[in-house]
Amino acid sequence: QRQLVESGGGLVQAGGSLRLSCAASRSTFSFNTIGWYRQVPGKQREMVATISSGDTTTYADSVKGRFAISRDNAKATVYLQMNSLKPEDTAAYHCNTLFNAARGINWGQGTQVTVSS
To answer: What is the pLDDT of residues 95-109, one digit of tens each?
Structure first.
């Protein structure tokens, strides 16, 4: 059973904001670096942002300054705050542990983000 569940996607106009949530099991959340990834049909999945158990973050250059990843220890949830959205941010967004993402396993359905121009 998959231990991560994504939510929060939707349709938004360019320049708008959305916050995605990734609810994790306690064991998955506590000891893993967790990341947000996105994929457009016909293209490779790309890393958007990651956050370690010690709150170290990394971002793709394309989202730096616009997106912010964070984690809520009490809720075992990782968030992706997306501001100043652009049409090119349109994609299916998935969360996964860095470990499983590197091995191409345990991908869920994700949550769709669509940015209209």
So the answer is: 999 999 999 999 888
